[in-house]
């Protein structure tokens, strides 16, 4: 399916367009009059939190927030991005080239100096499968600019813009596990951290499609 064939949510239809006619999500930085999709705009993380607006369209959220997260975030329930409207997030998982084309790499060259890295552990890898995680509750993580996501009311796995298979989800989660294991190893109490990770992994496996 071409991006132009995917219906644009009405809130996102009001967003500005780039020179190719594609919508530019609200969070994207504008550099010298052009959007740079790799870069989060200055102050956008703080504004999204403070004004409770959608990360993608910039309009107010209702009772629910939808997170687009990778498999490791499904395990530890920590997101580096704030929530969006469900329909905006659905559009992102179906239309965003980075999320939907696993062989595409993030381009890290020539990033402007103002580029803002999400705080915490930044994992530079394509997650393979992504998860739409809809919840009624979320809060700011004790570490600045990370979000702890609450119990989901809906979860949907995607790969390449379509529903992911069970095998794809399991492979994607397994590929990320060593990174979380290494993180647990750095914990002041590694045995406890590994045990907690085991529990988190078991909990995440319950969300894998059958
Ligand atoms: Zn939205």
Class by alpha and beta content: alpha+beta
What is the CA–CA distance across the termini?
25 Å
Q: What small molecules does the structure contain?
A: zinc ion
Extended strand count: 9
Q: Which residue ranges are poorly predicted, with pLDDT under 50 across at least 5 consecutive positions?
A: 101-106, 113-125
Strand content: 15-25%
Oligomer: single chain
> What integer value in Å does the Rg equal?
17 Å
The profile of the biggest β sheet is:
4 strands, antiparallel
Helix fraction by DSSP (H/I, runs of at least 4): 25-40%
Q: How do the helices and strands follow one another from N- to C-terminus?
A: HEEHEHEHHEEEEEHH
Shape: globular
Q: What topology, given as strand order, has the largest sheet?
A: 3-5-8-9
Q: State mean pLDDT (0 to 100 scale).
A: 84
The number of distinct helices, counting runs of at least 4 residues, comes to 7
Tag the structure with descriptive keywords.
19% strand; alpha+beta; 210 residues; three-stranded antiparallel beta sheet; four-stranded antiparallel beta sheet
What does this structure look like?
The protein is an alpha+beta fold and 210 residues long. It has a domain at 62-205. The protein contains 7 helices and 9 strands; from the N terminus they run αββαβαβααβββββαα. The chain has helices at 10-13, 44-51, 71-76, 86-95, 97-100, 166-185, 190-205; strands at 28-31, 34-40, 65-69, 78-79, 130-135, 138-140, 147-149, 152-159, 162-163. The protein has a 4-stranded antiparallel β-sheet. The longest helix has 20 residues, at 166-185. The chain starts with 9 loop residues before the first helix and ends in a 5-residue tail after the last helix. 34% of the residues are buried. It binds zinc ion. Residues 11, 54, 56-57, 59, 84-85, 88 line the site of zinc ion.
């Amino acid at each position: 399916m071409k991006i132009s064939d995917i219906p644009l949510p009405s809130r996102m239809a009001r967003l500005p367009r780039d020179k190719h006619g594609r919508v530019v999500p609200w969070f994207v930085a504008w550099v010298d009059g052009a959007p740079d999709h790799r870069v989060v705009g200055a102050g956008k993380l703080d504004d999204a939190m403070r004004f409770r607006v959608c990360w993608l369209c910039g309009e107010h959220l209702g009772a629910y927030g939808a997170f687009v997260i990778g498999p490791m975030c499904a395990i530890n329930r920590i997101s580096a991005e704030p929530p969006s409207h469900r329909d905006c997030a659905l559009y992102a998982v179906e239309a965003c080239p980075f999320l939907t084309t696993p062989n595409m790499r993030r381009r890290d060259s020539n990033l402007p100096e103002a580029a803002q890295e999400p705080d915490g552990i930044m994992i530079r890898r394509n997650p393979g499968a992504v998860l739409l995680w809809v919840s009624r509750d979320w809060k700011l993580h004790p570490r600045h600019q990370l979000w702890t996501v609450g119990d989901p009311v809906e979860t949907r796995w995607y790969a390449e813009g379509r529903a992911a298979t069970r095998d794809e989800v399991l492979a994607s989660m397994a590929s990320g596990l060593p990174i979380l294991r290494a993180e647990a190893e750095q914990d002041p109490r590694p045995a406890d951290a590994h045990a907690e990770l085991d529990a988190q992994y078991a909990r995440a496996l319950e969300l894998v499609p059958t």
